[in-house]
Amino acid sequence: IKTRETNVKGYLFISIVLVQIKELIRGLRKDKITKLLAKAIKNVKKRYLLILKEIVAT
């Protein structure tokens, strides 16, 4: 992202997959994982927006 990549799809995909893998390993049920995936998406959005703002400011 910090290398001026503006396409968030890859970063978002990796973030979601990592959350899903971690929670499946922990033994969390699939219905509970859905809520965590939604939270991960929101977190990616927040992080990505902050980084984009930093890039624009420089």
Task: Provide an overview of this structure.
The structure is a single chain. The model has no long low-confidence stretch (mean pLDDT 84). The chain has 58 residues and is mainly α. The protein has one domain (9-57). The protein is elongated and about 45 Å long. Helix 1 runs antiparallel to helix 2. The chain is built from 2 helices and no strands. The longest helix is centred in the last third of the chain and has 28 residues, at 30-57. It has helices spanning 9-26, 30-57.
Short description:
The mean pLDDT is 84. The chain has 58 residues and is an all-alpha fold. Helix content is 79%, strand content 0%.
Query: What is the subunit arrangement here?
Result: single chain
Number of beta strands: 0
Total separate domains? 1
Q: Which shape, going by the Cα principal axes? A: elongated
Mean pLDDT: 84
Low-confidence stretches: none
Structural class: mainly alpha
